[in-house]
Amino acid sequence: MYHFDRFFLGIGLLLALYGGPLIATQLESASGVWWKRVGVAALLLYGLFNGALVDVMMVHDANLAMVNPEIQVFGRVAP
Hints:
This protein has helices at 9-29, 34-59, 62-67. By secondary structure, it is mainly alpha-helical. It has one domain. 0% of the residues are buried. The mean pLDDT is 75.
């Protein structure tokens, strides 16, 4: 099933409000457990790159080309 990522940005913000304190308590209780810190760092990097890619995909969306005449999509599409 296809979905637009931009519609899930609000849900991600809501989940971050609850996930942030959960991760903080897990890291405080993890004294000397390096794999939890590596997992949190990987999760944060994934979120950063995913958020950046959503912005790039929104800029290159074909629907934007229909509204903005400066973007020439029809010259690149084969008949």
